[in-house]
Design brief:
Blueprint: E1 12-17, E2 28-30, E3 40-46, E4 51-56, E5 66-68, E6 75-80, E7 83-88, E8 93-97, E9 104-108, E10 113-117, E11 122-125, E12 130-133, E13 142-148, E14 151-158, E15 163-170, E16 176-178
Parallel strand pairs: 2-4
Antiparallel strand pairs: 1-3, 3-4, 5-6, 6-7, 7-8, 9-10, 10-11, 11-12, 13-14, 14-15, 15-16
C-alpha cells in the first residue's frame, strides 16, 4: 500500500458492569446461553459502533475476576470468578475457554501473549493459539512469582514436606525446572 492508505482496525473497549442492564438488548451469556442467570457482566463497545453486553459464568464467587484487552483489536480475555474466556469482540463469540481457577494472569510484552496459572502449571497464548503449556510442577499452589529476563521464578508448595520449593520457567518454551510435583501431567 502506498502513502495515504490506512488499514482500518476496529478497536474495542471492555469494562465490567455492576450487574445486568435493566433495559436494552439482552446480554449474551458465556460459555452457553442457558448456563446461569447472572455472572460477571462486561460491556463491550466498539469505536463508533454499537455496544453489547456479555454475561460470564463464574467458577466460584471468590475467584479472580478481570478483563484484558492486550491481545489486539478484537481479542478480549475475561476472567470470571477463576474461569477464563477468550472472546472475539467483533463476532461476539467464544473462541475458547482458557482454564479453571485462574489465580495469576498478565500480559507479557516479550511474548506478546497472556500468561495464566491455576497454581499447578502455566499457559501462554495469543489471540490465535496456545503458545505453550508447562508441565504440572506444583502439588497445591505457587507463590512469590517473579519475572527476570526470559524466565519466571517462584515457589511451588509440597504437601509431603510442608515446604515451598523453588521453580524456574523459561518464557520462550514453557519448560520448567524444579517445583514440587514431578509426576505425570494430569
Amino acid at each position: 500500500m502506498g502513502p495515504g492508505h490506512r488499514i482500518s482496525q476496529q478497536m474495542f473497549a471492555a469494562r465490567p458492569l455492576p450487574g445486568l442492564p435493566p433495559y436494552g438488548r439482552r446480554a449474551q451469556s458465556f460459555p452457553r446461553a442457558d448456563a446461569f442467570s447472572e455472572g460477571f457482566v462486561v460491556e463491550f463497545s466498539e469505536d463508533g459502533g454499537e455496544a453489547w453486553v456479555g454475561n460470564f459464568a463464574k467458577a466460584w464467587e471468590g475467584g479472580q475476576t478481570s478483563v484484558h484487552t492486550d491481545l489486539g483489536s478484537r481479542a478480549v480475555v475475561v476472567v470470571a470468578g477463576g474461569s477464563g474466556y477468550l472472546v472475539d469482540a467483533t463476532t461476539r463469540r467464544l473462541v475458547r475457554e482458557i482454564a479453571f481457577d485462574i489465580q495469576h494472569i498478565w500480559f507479557d510484552d516479550g511474548l506478546q501473549a497472556i500468561i495464566v496459572s491455576n497454581g499447578l502449571w502455566f499457559e501462554a497464548f495469543d489471540a490465535e493459539k496456545v503458545l505453550w503449556r508447562s508441565r504440572r510442577f506444583s502439588w497445591d499452589g505457587i507463590q512469590n512469582v517473579g519475572q527476570s529476563g526470559g524466565a519466571l521464578t517462584g515457589e511451588a508448595f509440597d504437601p509431603m514436606t510442608d515446604r515451598w520449593l523453588p521453580f524456574r520457567l523459561r518464557l520462550e518454551t514453557g519448560e520448567v525446572q524444579g517445583g514440587s510435583y514431578n509426576g505425570p501431567d494430569m
